[in-house]
């Protein structure tokens, strides 16, 4: 069995697009967009660099974040190839386990993954405030004991040498800015054979 570990923000979902949280916070909260942006800039990150989500909700006076984001289309924030690709991978359940690993505010990430419906298309969703993904990947490898691991993220901070089991690290660049080998720009560029073969 192989293990595929997927980042969420800007790999599976366009969180900087019009259905991303930042666009919604800045454009759908206050009638004064300048003020809304000012609040966003002030509270988006705390001392641990993680978004101060609860503080943002408080200052924008959002009572129910789930309903608020649902109303503003957050469920549509996935890139257009995400669902079909994950559905196709489900056909190879016997060869591949799929985990979403995302690092950010727990509540915010839960809402995004709930609204986009991804939970039913993967084996597990791990949401952590630990920004050290190498550590989190090692935990998943220990849990699943895969023959090989494939990790896909738009921010790569590790190399295969950081692991003592076989791992393919693939960089995602949805903006098509990095046009060199080893970087993919949509999910179809990842060969199925790499994911499902031993
Ligand atoms: Mg990302």
Biggest β-sheet: count, sense, barrel? 6 strands, parallel
Structural class: alpha/beta
Tally the structural domains.
2
Number of helices: 8
Could you tell me the radius of gyration in angstroms? 18 Å
Write the H/E string, N to C.
Answer: EHHHHHEHEHEEEH
CATH class category label of the largest domain:
Alpha Beta
Q: Give, in spatial order, the strands making up the sheet with the most strands.
A: 3-2-1-4-5-6
Q: What is the helical fraction, as a range of percent? A: 25-40%
Q: What characteristics describe this protein?
A:
single chain, 198 residues, alpha/beta, Rossmann fold, 2 domains, 8 helices, 35% helix, binds magnesium ion
Describe the structure.
The chain has 198 residues and is an alpha/beta fold. It has two domains: 2-14 and 77-196, HAD superfamily/HAD-like (Rossmann fold), CATH 3.40.50.1000; 21-74. The chain is 35% helix and 16% strand. The protein contains eight helices and six strands. It has helices at residues 21-27, 33-43, 53-59, 65-71, 82-90, 106-116, 133-144, 192-196, and strands spanning 2-6, 96-103, 124-128, 148-153, 167-172, 183-184. The chain has a six-stranded parallel sheet with strand order 3-2-1-4-5-6, sandwiched between helices. The protein starts with a strand and ends with a helix. Magnesium ion is lined by residues 7, 9-11, 153-155.
How would you summarize the topology of this molecule?
Layout (H helix, E strand, L loop, with lengths): L1 E5 L14 H7 L5 H11 L9 H7 L5 H7 L10 H9 L5 E8 L2 H11 L7 E5 L4 H12 L3 E6 L13 E6 L10 E2 L7 H5 L2
Parallel strand pairs: 1-2, 1-4, 2-3, 4-5, 5-6
Magnesium ion binds next to loops.
């Amino acid at each position: 069995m192989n293990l595929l570990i997927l980042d969420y923000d800007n790999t599976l979902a366009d969180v900087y697009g019009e259905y991303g949280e930042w666009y919604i916070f800045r454009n759908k909260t206050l009638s004064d967009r300048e003020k809304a942006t000012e609040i966003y800039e002030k509270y988006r990150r705390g001392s641990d660099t993680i978004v101060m989500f609860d503080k943002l909700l408080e200052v924008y006076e959002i009572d129910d974040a789930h309903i608020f984001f649902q109303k503003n289309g957050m469920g549509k924030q996935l890139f257009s190839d995400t669902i079909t690709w994950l559905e196709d991978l489900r056909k190879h359940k016997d060869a591949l386990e799929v985990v979403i690993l995302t690092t950010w505010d727990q509540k915010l990430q839960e809402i995004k993954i709930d609204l986009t419906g991804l939970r039913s298309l993967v084996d597990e969703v791990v949401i952590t405030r630990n920004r050290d993904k190498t550590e989190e990947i090692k935990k998943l490898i220990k849990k699943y004991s895969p023959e090989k691991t494939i990790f896909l993220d738009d921010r790569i901070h590790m190399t295969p040498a950081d692991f003592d089991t076989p791992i393919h690290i693939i960089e995602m660049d949805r903006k098509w800015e990095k046009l060199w080998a080893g970087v993919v720009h949509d999910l179809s560029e990842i060969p199925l054979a790499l994911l499902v073969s031993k």
